[in-house]
Amino acid sequence: MVLAYLLREAGFAIGLMYIDHLSREGASFSDSLHVAKVASAWDIPYYYRKFHHTNQKQNSNFQDQARKFRYQVLQEKLREESYTVIATGHHQQDSIESFFLHLSKKAGLEGLLGIELKQDNIVRPLLHLTTDEIDEYCQNKGIQHIIDQSNYQNNYKRNEFRNTVVPKLLKWDENFVESAHTSIEYLKEANHWIDQEIKIWTQTHLKEKGEMLLIPLEQVKMHHSPKLLLLRILKNKGFNASQVKEILSAQNSGQIWVGDHVEANLFQSTLYLSQKIELINSRPIHFPFDDYQHSNLGNILTHHSKPTKSQGEIISVPSSKRNSNLVFRKRLAGDYMKFSYGKKKLKKVFVEHRIPKIERSRLWVLAYEN
User: Fold this and answer.
1) Angle (CA) 179 185 188, round 5°
2) First-to-last CA distance in the chain?
3) For the chain, N or C: smaller number of CB within 10 Å?
4) Which of 87, 89, 184 is closest to 135 using CA atoms?
5) CA separation for the pair 50, 20 (Å, rounded)
6) Nearest C-alpha neighbor of 6 from the set 93, 121, 92, 123
7) Which residues of the chain are under the pLDDT cut of 70?
């Protein structure tokens, strides 16, 4: 309510959204009526959504699912109504709680940065304020608000930390929250510097080959912090610290690691990153390839007579081969090529030309019979 009051006083055009978790024996709905009443008095838009969850037991994933749902519906409403940003009322103690919760999960530096002040189109204007400052502001301005009583129940780790650990820390040092917040700000500055250094390194050393990203592991290993460097490069691709450690210690070409929708293949001291292959893209396309544009072969043009200059590759098909046995497809086991001196397995051709496994799987072959 303080956030809404401040934004309105500052002259922003705002709307209020209440997401009802259908919890606290109906109290959550009663709280929504207060928000609706404020929105009506201010003559601003009010939005209400329900979150349904079948299992709200202590060890369930209720909080995680609820959090994802909240941001999902907020993003939807932002797009529907053409709002600029989503503003949330997180404060200093929320950020401190996130720091310690991540600390208990073996988080790296990025996991110890608390809550971000700005993250894409999400802003948290109250992040520099303590709970005492917010309470005092409510009293001075006469802002009516509601306390969620479930915050005092220790059925979630965050609640337990808030209700048992923080009071002890404040008893030890009354300025603990403010001091911890300052420390987190220092960590954010250090993290920003690391990000900039890694950005410069990647611009210098990483290369792109088609849809693949090539990472020179020998150069990575020469860096003064190879594990941190590689982890930061792979962080948004679904790879974890254990996989990064395996990659750095791997000796044999051909090893593959799988992240979220991304594969990493080691070949001759180079790590090849590319999207996972979907089997749906492997269907054969029969001659005369009338359907090539739909089948991701738009960059390949076929010519029945004289080839002309055009974008993409030029393919000449002998008339003797123009029958139903001629297809575009992904490679299969046993494929071979014919030369004047005899046959050679396609796999051997790939090896001789130093084409890594991850790239072989993405090549289309023009095949006659096998």
Assistant:
1) 150
2) 70
3) C
4) 89
5) 5
6) 123
7) 54-60, 152, 277-325, 369-370
Q: Residue 147 has which token pair?
A: 């306390």
pLDDT for 51: 87
11: closest CA among 41, 42, 37? 42
Cis peptide before 288 (omega within 30 of 0): yes
Please give the Cα distance from 48 to 33 (Å, whole number): 10
Q: How many Cβ atoms from other residues are within 10 Å of residue 324's Cβ?
A: 7
pLDDT digit string (tens) for 303-338? 333 444 444 444 555 666 555 567 777 788 888 888
Task: Tell me the one-letter amino acid at 218.
Answer: E
For 41-109, the three-class secondary structure string (H helix, E strand, C coil) is: HHCCCEEEEECCCCCCCCCCCHHHHHHHHHHHHHHHHHHHHCCCCEECCCCHHHHHHHHHHHHCCCCCH
Tokens 């073996």 identify what position?
106
pLDDT value at residue 190: 92
Rounded CA-CA distance 47/35 in Å is: 10
| Backbone angle region of 244, left / alpha / beta, with phi > 0 → left and psi within -120 to 50 → alpha | alpha
Q: 3-state SS string over the chain?
A: CHHHHHHHHCCCCCCEEEEECCCHHHHHHHHHHHHHHHHHHHCCCEEEEECCCCCCCCCCCHHHHHHHHHHHHHHHHHHHHCCCCEECCCCHHHHHHHHHHHHCCCCCHHHHCCCCCEECCEECCCCCCCHHHHHHHHHHHCCCCCCCHHHHCCCCHHHHHHHHHHHHHHHHCCCHHHHHHHHHHHHHHHHHHHHHHHHHHHHHHCEEECCEEEEEHHHHHHCCCHHHHHHHHHHHHCCCHHHHHHHHHCCCCCCEEECCCEEEEEECCEEEEEECCCHHHHCCEECCCCCCCCCCCCCEEEECCCCCCCCCEEEECCHHHCCCCEEEEECCCCCEEEECCEEEEHHHHHHHCCCCHHHHCCCEEEEECC
Measured distance CA(227)–CA(351) in Å, rounded? 30
